[in-house]
Amino acid sequence: MPHSPANHATFLVAARDQPGLVARLAGFFADLGLNIVDASNHSDADVEGGPRFYMRLEVDLDGLSRPAAHAVLGPSVSRSALEGAFARLGESIGATWSVRYADHVAKVAVLVTKEGTCLYDLLLRQQSGELPCTIPLIVSNHAVLERVAESFGVPFYALPVTPDTKRDQERRLLDVLHRHHIELVVLARYMQVLSDAFLAEAPPVINIHHGFLPAFQGARPYHQAHARGVKIIGATAHYATADLDQGPIIEQDVARVDHRMGPDEMARVGRDVERVVLARAVRAHLEHRVIVEGPRTILL
Amino acid sequence: MPHSPANHATFLVAARDQPGLVARLAGFFADLGLNIVDASNHSDADVEGGPRFYMRLEVDLDGLSRPAAHAVLGPSVSRSALEGAFARLGESIGATWSVRYADHVAKVAVLVTKEGTCLYDLLLRQQSGELPCTIPLIVSNHAVLERVAESFGVPFYALPVTPDTKRDQERRLLDVLHRHHIELVVLARYMQVLSDAFLAEAPPVINIHHGFLPAFQGARPYHQAHARGVKIIGATAHYATADLDQGPIIEQDVARVDHRMGPDEMARVGRDVERVVLARAVRAHLEHRVIVEGPRTILL
Amino acid sequence: MPHSPANHATFLVAARDQPGLVARLAGFFADLGLNIVDASNHSDADVEGGPRFYMRLEVDLDGLSRPAAHAVLGPSVSRSALEGAFARLGESIGATWSVRYADHVAKVAVLVTKEGTCLYDLLLRQQSGELPCTIPLIVSNHAVLERVAESFGVPFYALPVTPDTKRDQERRLLDVLHRHHIELVVLARYMQVLSDAFLAEAPPVINIHHGFLPAFQGARPYHQAHARGVKIIGATAHYATADLDQGPIIEQDVARVDHRMGPDEMARVGRDVERVVLARAVRAHLEHRVIVEGPRTILL
Amino acid sequence: MPHSPANHATFLVAARDQPGLVARLAGFFADLGLNIVDASNHSDADVEGGPRFYMRLEVDLDGLSRPAAHAVLGPSVSRSALEGAFARLGESIGATWSVRYADHVAKVAVLVTKEGTCLYDLLLRQQSGELPCTIPLIVSNHAVLERVAESFGVPFYALPVTPDTKRDQERRLLDVLHRHHIELVVLARYMQVLSDAFLAEAPPVINIHHGFLPAFQGARPYHQAHARGVKIIGATAHYATADLDQGPIIEQDVARVDHRMGPDEMARVGRDVERVVLARAVRAHLEHRVIVEGPRTILL
Fold it and tell me: Which residues of A touch D115 (CB under 8 A)?
């Protein structure tokens, strides 16, 4: 799953399944003279309410400057003209869809509390070019990770919270996110439950749960895992929803533990899983690979 | 974890932790002139009720015919003399212990219903020498796998069961197990819950659960996993206890699934995990590597 | 990767990359009124000789009885008419392509020597419906596995071979394969090197190498691995070619080993990897997912 | 494998196998009134030159202040007295041995060139307490990672090298290492081959190779892996020896790749493996778990 060159656009499409969808979608781009460099589609017949169609198309936009595109889109070919034309196609097939341009660098906010492993990991991957995004701000309900933010030159917002100030703190958090045009919020071990009201107004939120959901929901999953005597622990990255720990799962992975490990040692092993799982989920989201359908995700 | 040569004995010991235990246990064998070819011990300080000590010692019994052993055990050196002496040591340190001789071939009964993958797998591993046991009988509540038993030359007992006859069927099952001196019962997808009364009288019972416990307890775990949209499925081998799906876990493993897989496809992928997990658990039990402590196991 | 329903057809296409290919391929099926239920394509820009396009399309043939298909293919719609039309499309875009019908049950021959693990595994998967094929014959240069063939009711051909009779034995082997219309040969631990002449005339041949190629080529890979002190061993399934152990790799997997394992114990662990890797490779081939490009494979 | 409490000592012992070794070693500590909290031993019968015995003992030194210890070691019980007594035991059984005290914090130098992933990873793990060491200096033949060293407050030594100055640069490097009493050198993607002369005088050196040795030795392993079409890539941590890429392997791990990944993408996936493998190897070394025997390691 390599990064896309800058002149690529990626379309995600979900619709009721029906014959001819691939042809119509691919035909749309062929008529414009645009090359599809990578695509996959899948029809799921077992969905309540009837078969569903999912497709991801990665398209080379180079052709937009050539006559074919002009013939379709008119003299002033633009991305909004492209989107307008695609919207008409989408409507005709009853699709929900979205597009991401590879040269658009998403703005991601990272929320943390005291544990810095996942934060460092995201910052380093962003810095090395692994994550196609910027991280214009870090928010925490504690001050302890401010130094990390500083060493990467990222503005740090300390927004402490108590049960009494939760509503107010979330309001201020929303303000910060909106002011910076944040498109994705990553909870990198942010130890606060976000309210429904907040989630309703916030950009998409990805959370890392340090347990192998749906086992070990709630607090202290490593202590739960240790007490139960499991031989494998895991981590789960999911979209945050109003139901705690119930959001659509994006990615999971596991690691082996043994009888010599107490909960703290399990936590150490788990941290290596958490950060990799979170990074993969963030990357999949940024690369426009994730379709959410009810309680599940489709990764294309 | 290679098989032990035939003249080896393996001791498992659990006791309250106290200084000098390793020296006393190792010294016991040194005094007898017996070489310890593999051993490991671990003290767990975090156990309720005080620190616990666990040790596995694999000993070469060749030395039993030499003078040192005679000096300790008397003129007629025998395994029961060895055990008697070890029992005195065990008592003095307050240990629970057990011994397995590598040349003792355990008798294992396999219980099945209709699904044959795990059964075949166990039979083949036994046949190839991977599992140090014989399988003198296969029991099922259905007739469908009789042919498999036949092709391996293993007696097959069909013991059908209905809610009304459950008590009686379990009684007959116990009779069969006892008559054949069965030392381990393996539930290789036996789709019946065993009663507490049965478990109290039966030899140890290992069950394979086709879910990554403690997630997806109960029936149809793959359907549960599919509905929840997990990215990884698993299987769990555990000792059967009166609490369904709550017995001490011996082994677990996992496999990746994706959005193209329905529950049936997940089941197919899961079968490969199940049989490997079950075989590892049975092998660990037969090699005398498993200490059960409350809800957990120690694998040495 | 579920099995396809019986009325599906799967097309594999490779061509020089060029804009409009997805639209033309998908359009072909849309014009016929056939639904594409699963597809993926990828363009690789880094290929010597210019960018390459690869696509797999799984199509529901139900629509073949409807007017749209008749309009394109004429009154007597048949698979050969479908293939003829697709061939014209393929030619026009310079593609190599092939089709597999889900209701076509491929005939697979398994070649073995003395080691039966992979053979049993393939027979059981075939029997349980995991592998969309029949296994009409088993061939061996030894008699030892004849009993296994018998217990599954599969004809067994013993074709012993010595250096002097190799050419003749291969000739007889080819005769058997052709006589039974074998479409795929699986070397399930067949301990003979097949000659170039044989491979040139035989159906595709998949081999399992019990090493993590390209490490540990040649004989006794577990002894090589043990001597080198590796911490992980593996197995590799590849198409057999004239260059021993150099054929295009279809699938690989690994397992962890430790210092307590000698070469024999590594071999035991390795067997579990081998059979799973081989089964996955055979399945991928039978599901028409593998495109061979020079020394590599594309799995779609 | 949890960290040891500060008052623990860990002994590693290798010797010709002989009956009574465990009893003598454990008895030594029992006589001193010291509790063995974790131990394992293994005898390998398949070693050229005769069976070998390996043991790791982790001992609680609390008892050193009690009468039993005084009775054995004399009035002024000290670690050097303990070591002196153990040395006599070691000599009597022909053992090579070493001891590490948990409260001794090893000094580790990290050598890098331009790639910072492994460096960051080691610094973060050290900082979080995962690695029982300090990192008093970072050395590089380039200046590019100086900023990273600074942000962690670690002195950075730029020691550029050319073919002509190699001998001189290594001499200066040795001076720096010795001056800082470095006990372990970690090559965290240091792109220089160290000379035999340097290795002979340096502390132990652990290197991370970004290939699954022994496959893909030498330069650009990801390009080699891509060209060969492997489905799994890996990384190997080993002690550096005079034979490039041939040193005793400490740890390996792997990750899956697919046809969509070019060498650069493989390198990205590989980096996640490299840093985890290197960290595990460094940790195993620092926890005194690694015995080197010829071309192999024993991890206890």
Answer: none
